[in-house]
Each structure stands twice: as structure tokens, then as C-alpha cells.
Amino acid sequence: MRQDKIGIAYENKTQNSKALFTRGTRLFAGGINHNVRLFKPYPFFSEGANGKFIFDVDSNRYTDYWMGHWSLILGHSPKPVVKTLSEQLHKGTLYGTPNGASLELAELIQKLMPSAELLRFSSTGSEATMYAVRLARAKSRKRVIAKITGGWHGFNTTLMHSVNYPFHSPEGTGLIAEEEQFVESLPFNNLDSSLKILQSVIDDIACILLEPILAGAGCITPDINYLLGLQEFAHKNDILLIFDEIVTGFRLSIGGAIQKYGLNPDLFTLGKIVGGGMPIGVVCGKKEIMTLADPTIPADSEFRCNIGGGTYSCNPMTMMAGLATIKYLDENKNEIYSKIDGLGAKARSGLTKIFSEANIDAHITGEGSLFLTHFLNDKVKIIKNATDVSLSDQKSLYRYHLALMTLNQIFFLPGKMGAISYEHSEADIDQLLMATQRILESGLV
Ligand SMILES: Cc1ncc(COP(=O)(O)O)c(C=O)c1O
Description:
This protein has helices at residues 3-13, 15-25, 67-70, 79-89, 100-112, 125-140, 177-180, 191-200, 224-236, 256-261, 287-290, 316-331, 333-357, 386-391, 394-408, 426-441; strands at 46-50, 53-56, 61-64, 118-122, 144-148, 183-186, 205-210, 240-244, 267-271, 281-285, 362-367, 370-375, 410-411, 418-419. It is an alpha/beta fold. The chain has 16 helices and 14 strands. The strands form three sheets. The protein has a seven-stranded mixed beta sheet, with helices on both faces. Strands 1-2-3-13 form a four-stranded mixed beta sheet. The N and C termini lie close together (9 Å). Bound molecules: pyridoxal-5'-phosphate. Pyridoxal-5'-phosphate (PLP) binds at residues 69, 124-126, 129, 152-154, 211, 215-216, 244, 246-247, 271, 281.
């Protein structure tokens, strides 16, 4: 059964989703409200989710590894979040005024991530990274942003460059070509080349902005010397260093990648997990930079940098959900991170063994509770950066994920990395390994 047959099996199981998707195409461009959620033949429509499971409108139940864009570290609807949101619902969902919960959440983030000397809440990660860049430009009075080739920081205009292979074409129309001259892209894990590129724009560079692990680009882990080398160069040359911890924050450890790898950024961004399943973005960092966002600075001052937050920023639902989640993570950190990291290690080593025994050239990337299978080929023998991922056999990866979904009720967003939550168990990883073995044995990929 090759992809088309798996596709037919998928369609047979998801007829109600198919009808809804068709209806959706009359309402939304391409039938969708976030490009990444679209896959062929069409995405299933969800009806509910609980713990590690997500249910579709055709009564299929999947073990979920997409977990709300990797946000739901405690699983779907964890008890502490349900309790606090049920109570908050009766006390107001959006005040449009400051509230105490935002202070509690900010203080907790600050305690766990001391680099967050000041913070600003927004409602999406795309906003947070956009504000971080604006602050960096305001502080440095320079224009160029260095990002990683393939790095994904959301749909904001500033950072919509060199995201998709071949990385040097515009990321679609509607973006102004002139803006691109202010974005340089660096090859991940290649320090010499990256430093050369940085050196070439040294007079006008505002910041280096990067994810510690390339998440959307293919779950690519860093060579720690690469991160430290960029950091050293940035500090030496007065270039602001920004880590986008929207995926890795509270995922790699309770103090994120900054704590795990011993990093020292000027600014960093958070999102996903810190919203506890509600919309969020946060830009955090050094006081001397974040202070530029203080609206009491006179509007005509050369020091004032206007960044937003937006109508829904620090709404009490998000603040309470985030607070319940981060408190729970903090109180149970040893147990939670050793469990999910252990399951991640088991998945990576188990999958590596299965692919190797099946004589299929694969590289399972990831760290902690994140992992992704890459199918290698003549062009790519190891995954070190986003170009390697783009040149790997993505059709096989897609077929593998669709087969897991259709034949084994295991959901990865096709092509994207998996995230393990506290709700997952050893038995789930065993099930994933057995399902993979069955798929390989039947020659489906
Ligand atoms: C590393 C990273 N930064 C920023 C974003 C954008 O966040 P949002 O989708 O909340 O706008 C994402 C989203 O996946 C991300 O993975």
C-alpha cells in the first residue's frame, strides 16, 4: 500500500472531515487558517481532545504527538488548567486592564528564567519575535537581522525570510524585496561560515536571532559550540543576541535552553507552553533594552520604542492557564522532565534501531521530549541544518506519518516533529515503535 492507497484508507476513515474540509474551502483560502496544518489529502477535523488523545469528527481516536503545535506539555486539558479556567470563566475572560495574574505569571517566569529582567506579554509568538527585533534595532540603531537559514519565527514580515528551501527566494508575494537586504541568514551549526557572514555586515547588524533547536525546520539540535561561538561573537562585537525559546522554553528544562545550555542572551521570546493551551507570546530580556518599551518615555524621545501587546495581551484566561501550567511544571519538575526526556530517548533509540534493522537509512533527530525521523538518501547522510532536511526524502516521511495516522491511530502532523507530553507513557512509545516496525515490514515506506 503506497501513499495513494494510504490516502484512500485515510479518506475512508475520515469522511466527515472530508465534508467539513470541502465546506471550509468555501470559507477559508485553501480551507485552512494556518498553512502548516494543511496536509494531503486533507486534515482531519477535531471534535475533542483529552490527555494524550485527540478525537476527530469520524470517531477516530489518535495518540497525539503534535500536541497543539508542541505546546501542551501536560497533555490536553490537564486538571490544574481546567480547574483554574473554569473558575476564571465566571470572573471575566478579558478585562482590558492590568491584572494580578499577569504579575504572578511574570514573577514565576522571572524566578525560573532570571534573564527575564523585564517582560511584555502578547497573544502570539509571531508578535513576540517581531517586538524583539524592533527592540534590538531601537537599542542598537542598526538595521540588519541575522537569522538561521530555515529558522521559523512566525508570520511577521520582518522574519519571513529564508524560511523555505531554497531559502534565497522571497517567501511569497506581498513582502517587500527591499526589506530582505536587512536580513542575513546563517547556516546552522556552521560557525566559520556564520561568522564570515556576520563579519560582512558588522557595521549595520542589530541582532542575531535564533532558536536553540530548529523546531519547525526539522527538529535539529545545536552543536553547543555553535551557540556559544555565536554568543561570544555577539558579545564581543556589541551585537544583541536573541534566543527564540517559543518551542524550547519550559520544554528542554524548567529554565529552557538558556538554562540547559548555559546561554546568556540579551532578549528572548516565549510562547506555546507558557500559555497553558491559551494564546500567548512573551518578549523578555535585559532591563536596559526592555525599558525602551516604556510608554512613559516621551513620544518624541529618541529612546522610545513602541511595541504592542494587543487587545488580548495578558488576558486573565491565558494568564491563569499559563500560571497553572508553569506552577505545576515547577512543583513537579524532576518527575516531569525525567519522564518526558526518558520517553524521548526511548523513542529516538528505538526508532534508530528499527530503521537500521530494516536497512533504511534514517536519522532520528531531537533532544529531550522532541524527536523527528528523517529519511536519508544519496544527497543527505546526516541532518545538521535545514538544507539537509529539505534535501532528505520528505515524501517517505510524509507517507510514514500518514501511515501512522491511518493504520495505527498515532498522530504526527505529517512531516513535523513530535512532542511528548507528561500524559504519554512507555506503552505509547512501545506502540509507536511496533507501529513503525509494522509499517516498514509491509513496505509502506
Ligand atoms: C520558534 C518559533 N517562533 C515563533 C513561532 C510563532 O508563534 P505563533 O505561532 O504563536 O505566532 C513559532 C510557531 O510555531 C515557533 O516555532
